[in-house]
Amino acid sequence: MDIPITDNHIHVDPYNGEGPLKIAQTFHRSGGKRMIIPNKPSWTFGEPFNFQKAMHLVLDYVKKINTESEVEAYAVVGLHPAELSRLLESGKNINTARDMVKKGLDYAQKLVLEGEAVAIGEIGRPHYEVSPEEWDLQNEIMIYTMKLARDAGCPVQLHTETSQEPQFKEFALMADKAGLKRYKLIKHFSGPYTDEIENHGLTPSLIATRDVVSKGIKKSNYFLMETDYLDDASRPGAVLGPKTVPRRTLEFIKKGLISEDDAYKIHSENIKKVYGIE
Ligand SMILES: [Zn+2]
Q: Domain span at residue 94?
């Protein structure tokens, strides 16, 4: 069976790491077929708050991978919640910061509508403590983005604090409020919350450790897999390496921990359901 092994959240970064082509080649040599790549925040290339450039960089990386390697790449564009934190830290008032972030997200939607990107993300709310005012604004922007995605018919990749059933429920209710189908909301960096009772109909993108994937597959085969690889030489080992999703998938099939049918469901059918990618 030909399984199009897909890393649902992997970064490439020629400024701080090895860049698109090297990572794609490493991924492919390990058995990977598709990379779904969210843009990195604006400060990683030294131009804080140049959101449009952050998005165009990832579009360029995706084009390079698609033309110069065997891997299929897809772009995800948006504003990491830390961008808003940094806007506020830089002295921008709440209204200016809100406008700048919303403008950036409108632009992300435009790129999806033009067929340049397959989802809006990673967006969400911080994994670190912030003021109540900022927290409210982050939540407001999450719902705003879900509405943009609803209108564009695309999914959203969510970056949030560590989440379990209560948070999944909260995000599901936000999706309902925005009119976005719950499965179009992808919880990036998810634990093994593959049972609908735990994830409330969201799509969990499991961090591809042995522990998380083996716990997840025992309950359901409705999930995606990711590394959240950063491609940042100054943060080695911060997350899983680019070979992990293909290696883990093939290892689990070989050991009988996952069936070929389940692997096909995860890497082909689930990806198709969420993104419409064949
Ligand atoms: Zn990420």
A: 6-275
